Amino acid sequence: MPGFQKSDTLEILLYAAEELFAKQGFDGTTLRDITGLAGVNLAAAHYHLGNKEALYIKVFTRRLQPINESRLARLARAEQEANISLVGMEQLIEIMARPLFELAADTQHGGQYFARILGRCLVEPLPFMEAIITAELQPVMARFGQALRRHSPQLAPEEYLWRFSFVIGAMHHSLATLHGMKVRTHGICRDHDAAAALQRFIPFAVATFTAPVKPEPVNNR
Amino acid sequence: MPGFQKSDTLEILLYAAEELFAKQGFDGTTLRDITGLAGVNLAAAHYHLGNKEALYIKVFTRRLQPINESRLARLARAEQEANISLVGMEQLIEIMARPLFELAADTQHGGQYFARILGRCLVEPLPFMEAIITAELQPVMARFGQALRRHSPQLAPEEYLWRFSFVIGAMHHSLATLHGMKVRTHGICRDHDAAAALQRFIPFAVATFTAPVKPEPVNNR
DNA sequence: GTCTATAGACGGATAGAC
DNA sequence: GTCTATCCGTCTATAGAC
Q1: Tell me, what CATH number does B81's domain have?
Q2: For residue range A25-47, what is the model confidence (pLDDT) as tens digits?
Q3: Which protein residues have their Cβ less than 7 angstroms from some atom of strand D?
């Protein structure tokens, strides 16, 4: 966490909450855990945030909104520069994924914890987060989904959506587990290595969308 | 849930726990939720299972162990039949993935709920589950990882591990979200459609491992 | 804005009758 | 094996002094 000066109670709370929510989940984290780590009084947390759900939402949107704005801005700029031709697939995927992987690599300012929260959010459905995800996350994903779609007109809609789902799944899984890569790979991959992850993720995603169609259904067994 | 006859209290409890743990997570589910859904007395649950963590572990291993045994048996048989040549990539991935996707499609006997639990387990780390995952899940994953590795000797170890991680991530994400595909795709894909998922997942995984290596690091922006 | 103190509900777990 | 009743700790949230 960066250095705080005056009365940044709210900021300190958000950083502590981010870390614990990422590690333990929403239901596994108590306000006492958070205020304890933050060194803030329990009642003060309620004063600043109202309740636990509002705290979680604040942790979520505080990071996601600026990232989404910058991603959409970069996308719009790239499309403008490409004029009537298409923005390259590599570039589309890079614009979509880089800010997230870089966040996952940020071990100094808590970005890594937000990346883990984001990686979890599609898989552990918190009822009160449904509206937030629909409003903040889905439109941006859909925007990139549409842009990538133009590169894969040969794919049937269902085929394309499955592949897009695999790519998004791989990305969220990576965001949630970029810490811990070292242990899982017995030291071969490093933890929080955004550059390595991105360098592999971009061609991986391109290969997913450009792979030929398997016409006949699976016939094994 | 299937029809129970005599005093299948334990079984009823496991089905109810499976459903609620999948939907709400471990910390988000109370024993009272579970016994309420199961129609079983709270004290009876403790009598049969000891405590909440033991219940979760039981829910987890009860499904996973037989699946892993059958997957390893099929793999061993396929390797024997292939003699000194390699088992095909398609077949390897099919052996690894099919039982899980079929479970995710089982809306009659609760298999779908276990698939969601499995899909969550890599991304939401429960401290008491670490040992179980290391003992029950990792060895099987490693076994398939090794078998697939022989098809990709051209990939550097790090490169291979990243791709394997993407494939596993896509699979777990799919398992956790195979319900809800219809809403997310605006009706184009169906829910719990194991056949469709598998038909796309297998070539997707093959394409991931056979994609050419991008030599130079990403240079965009 | 920050604190102490506490309300009020709910959590997992158990004792002991049947 | 199953039940009622209950213990006891912890939770979120708030009231009210400073």
Answers
A1: 1.10.357
A2: 999 999 999 999 999 999 999 99
A3: A 29-33, 42-43, 46, 50-53; B 7, 9, 40-44, 47-48
- Extract the tokens encoding B207: 């394409």
**Number of domain units in chain A:** 1
User: Which tokens belong to A198?
Assistant: 């991105």
The helix/strand/coil state of B5 is coil
pLDDT in tens, A101-127: 999 999 999 999 999 999 999 999 999
From the list A90, A166, A203, the residue facing B170 with the nearest CB is A166
Terminal-to-terminal C-alpha distance of chain B:
54
The alpha carbon of residue B24 is apart from the nearest alpha carbon of chain A, in Å, by 7
Rounded to the nearest angstrom, the minimum Cα separation between A47 and chain B is 25
Q: Judge: B173–A161 Cβ closer than 8 Å, yes or no.
A: no
Residue B16 resides in a domain = no
Q: Which nucleotide is nearest to A45 (CA to C1')?
A: C2
Domain assignment present for A143: yes
Q: Is residue B7 part of a domain?
A: no
Q: How confident is the model at residue A99 (pLDDT cuts 50, 70, 90)?
A: very high
Please give the residue range of the domain that contains residue B194: 61-210
- Tell me if A219 is assigned to some domain: no
